[in-house]
Amino acid sequence: MIYRYGYLRREALALLCCGVAVCLVTATGCVDHRYDLKGDLDLSVGVGGKELTIPVGETEKITLEKLIGSDEDDLTVMPDGTYALLKRDDVQMDVAGIVPVTFRTHPFALSEIRPDFGTGVLPPSGSGTPGTGELPAAPIASRGDVKISADIPDEVKSVGRVTFSAPVEARVVFDVSGVSGVVNRMRFENLRVTFPPYIVLAGGGHELVINDEFAAAGGYVCSVGITAMVFDPLLVTDGTVQLDDPVELSGSLRITDIAPGGGDLTGVVLQPALTIGDMQVKLVEGHVEPELPHVQQWLGLQDIPAFLREAGTVLDVNPYINLGVANPLGMQVDVFLGLMPMVGNQENPAGSSNVAMRVREAGTPGGAVLSVFRIAKDASVMPDGYMFVEAPNLPALIRTVPDSILLDVQPALVPGTLQRVDLTVPAYQIRIDYELCVPMTFGPQLSILYRDTVDNLAKDIRDFVDKVQEIKILATVDNTVPLTLQAAAIAVDGQKQPLQGVEVSAPGTIAPGDGGDTPVSSSFDVVIRETQAGALARLDGLILEITAGNNEASAGIPATPRQYVQVRMKLRVPGGLIMDLDDL
After folding, report:
1. PROSITE patterns given for it (predicted)?
2. Which of 106, 309, 426, 432 sits between 20 and 30 A of 176, alpha carbons compared?
3. pLDDT (tens digit, 9 = 90+) per residue, 45-92?
4. What is the DSSP string of 92-114?
5. Whether residue 500 is found in the same domain as residue 546
6. Where are the alpha helices (DSSP H) in 431-500?
7. pTM of the entire structure?
8. Could you tell me if 411 and 339 lie in one domain?
């Protein structure tokens, strides 16, 4: 508290007494000069009548900011005009990426095709017209086993889908022989190249259908992109994947143009070949278990004044925690959050809370999606878009004001769900931003102890302290804070230690304000009485203890910046005092 002390101290008292002396000296001109003024004349004067009153001063307006105590950055006026204590921080959790994966196809062969056109010899070109459907066609088929393998990281337990960074070329080649001088052109009709069912082609499905005409002498080449592989049921991995499945070709081959002289068709042979490039994986979907870090972090409350940690101080308020989790992982995450208040470097289990939140997965791994939560005792006040997390014991977190709060954050995968991981992302970071909010709306169990010191009382009383055994301080208090206050005093010496040899009266009560702008005034006396002679001479100050308690009538009234307490004080000497003019 900052005091504006009055100036009626030694100088004022001396001036008062000197005035009395002047009057006495002047009066000597009106008395018998034969009277011996050097005899037993009592040169003393009574000052103060029944009580000598000396203004001590008044406090500045002690606003709620001072009573509750907080750093300016932490005390915030909310949109509704009430005060709230805010503490903001964040937790960052680094998640290592998963090493790249490449699927490779081993060399393999497709069986050769010897088409049976139903005739061994083509007649001269005049006997048939190309394109009329009268030229011969033959069913064709081929088969081969494709072998695909990859090394799989330990984090990947099973695979449902792998998506490649870019479409991988699957190249189908037909070498044609035995047609020289006989067949000029051919056409594939509904030729189906059937890949293993887990292959996903660029156009969808796992079949390539070819209807295309080509020059027989040059053979035929076509390509298709492979975009992914899908496994149903999930493909369980054990460090590697080994695939060995058939590729089949079936359809028709028609001759569309023959040499003028015709010729023998029995020597026509097609040799198909299929090559697939290296398949660089971008996305893995399945049971993927990256290592999620366990993080502990301290939320410091050191800037809260010490008086809030005095023995017996109880904060009966309803705090809440706003928490936002930015999750870049393509998987749902359960975040388990433990809150442990620390008081005097000791855990306070009575104030602990443990909650869990389910965080949404990122639609595109690497691009964070935000999930927002409000952790509170109840859902009475919930902002739009926030998910409620019940924490019945949260008010106990700060009921005894802690020095700090230990946050224990443990993310975990959601059982029974699949995960998506982008293998091209080297690392991820889950970021948790949180805000502890303590609205200054008090409950009925609130108890706050505020201490401050009135200094230098010795200067106010040094001229008469040896002549009295008791002094009284009259305090008048204006209060708009909706809290019942108890004010007590401890007399201290020049070292601010409790003064021995005096007794101090019982605490006085300060009536609660109604939360409005008009103060409620009340008064109380602090009486300091000697129990040992001369003890008051060592009095140098008072430690004022203002205890804030609540009651049912004022419970729930919010605190606002305008609410304040202001104390005006006067020092009184009961019975006045007798001053010897010889001492002036």
Report:
1. PROKAR_LIPOPROTEIN
2. 106
3. 344 444 555 566 566 676 665 655 555 456 677 776 667 778 999 999
4. EEEEE-----EEEEEP-----B-
5. yes
6. 457-461
7. 0.68
8. yes
